[in-house]
Design goal:
The structure holds two protein chains of two kinds. By secondary structure, chain A is an alpha/beta fold. In chain A, about 40% of the residues lie in helices and about 20% in strands. Chain A is built from ten helices and ten strands. Chain A is globular and about 55 Å long. The chains are: A alpha/beta, B alpha+beta.
């Protein structure tokens, strides 16, 4: 399974992605979690102590491109599998977490980590051994530039607020015109049944997951803990378990 | 006064910027709110409503389309592409990603 979570900032992408990745791993798959947010947060919802273990500059080497311009690629001897082995953090339930890392200084200084991360994504096209759960930064910028191109299902996380619904609609438009075969919405912070219909109507997307508003998530955020470690019985966890089940079933049906 | 509000997604940048802008405007300061997010929602928080927020043409798009001269001054761009809202705050959107087209936003 290969999914990427997108949505407005604060919609709940990382919170859902962290639980999703761990529940998927508990079913026995090899799960790779990708955090390409330059202000990373997926580590917290996975329960990994180190929130800042970004791609180091040493993962790439420079070379002269065909147009004479300087380019970067994964350094000699390093491919996607070995890069994951070397740079991913092992999170609870065995999820491998690969992080782009925090933006550092001016634009040029981020080129190494950006290219390392992109090189690993490129390699995923030929390496089908991973279930991939991607967590993109809020907004439209990274989705627009293909940072979620490994995904076969793009999940737009939307909460029933005007700004989130508007962002969801914009992302739906972007994602449908990009390469992902399937785009669907996850309605998050649902307080009443009509919220789900609202998300469906305003984004034009099928809602394939409904996650209730859950104070446990607020507590987890405040304490910097993974929701699964704070309260594994939380309603939000149950909702994401249902989502994992339905996506797994859909994938089996497609095969 | 020139203030930029930054922070992690969901931490409250847009809400803070909107309240700052309207509070300043209420004190009689001529206030321009610039939405520099490629997913621009500042209009919603300022109280422009969704329709007006979505009707704003990003200045960058207009310049790229050739409708406007690159040489336009900042004042001219804000004059042409900004709209006035509650408390007299003038809102302009710098760069929005609306469609997946090649090019750097």
């Amino acid at each position: 399974m290969r999914v990427a979570f997108v949505g407005k900032g604060g919609a709940g992408k990382s919170s859902i992605a962290g639980v999703f990745a761990r529940l998927l791993a508990r079913r026995g798959g090899r799960v790779l979690a990708l955090d390409s947010d330059p202000m990373p947060g997926l580590a917290y919802s996975l329960g990994v102590p180190s929130a800042d273990a970004g791609m180091p500059a040493e993962a790439v080497e420079e070379y002269d491109g065909p147009d004479g311009r300087q380019r970067y690629r994964l350094k000699s001897g390093l491919d996607t599998a070995s890069a994951i082995e070397r740079y991913a953090t092992i999170s609870p339930d065995g999820v491998r977490l690969l992080q782009l890392g925090k933006a550092r200084g001016v634009k040029g200084e981020n080129s190494y980590s950006h290219n390392a991360f992109q090189g690993i994504i490129d390699g995923l096209a030929d390496d089908d051994s991973w279930d991939v759960v991607g967590d993109l930064p809020g907004g439209t910028r990274q989705p627009f530039f293909g940072w979620g191109r490994y995904a076969r299902t793009v999940l737009v996380v939307v909460e029933p607020t005007p700004a989130s619904l508007l962002s969801g609609r914009r992302l739906a438009r972007l994602a449908q015109q990009l390469s992902a075969p399937r785009v669907a919405a996850i309605a998050n912070k649902i307080r009443e049944p009509s919220d789900v219909a609202l998300v469906e109507r305003r984004t034009g997307l099928q809602v394939i997951g409904q996650v209730p508003y859950d104070d446990s998530q607020g507590d987890a955020d405040r304490h910097g803990l993974a929701l699964l470690d704070l309260n594994s019985q939380a309603p939000m966890v149950a909702a994401i378990e249902t989502l994992v089940s339905s996506l797994t079933a859909a994938e089996i049906a497609v095969r | 006064m020139k203030v930029a509000v930054v922070g992690k997604g969901g931490s409250g940048k847009t809400t803070t910027a909107a309240v700052l802008a309207r509070t300043l405007a209420r004190q009689g300061v001529q206030t321009i709110a610039l939405d520099c997010d490629t997913n621009p929602n500042l209009g919603l928080s300022l109280g422009f409503g969704e329709e007006r927020t979505e009707s704003l043409i990003a200045m960058r798009d207009a310049v790229d389309d050739g409708d406007e001269e690159h040489a336009s001054s900042a004042d001219e761009l804000i004059e042409r592409f900004g709209i006035d809202g509650p408390d007299g705050v003038r809102l302009a959107v710098v760069s929005a990603i609306q469609n997946p087209e090649p090019g750097c936003p």
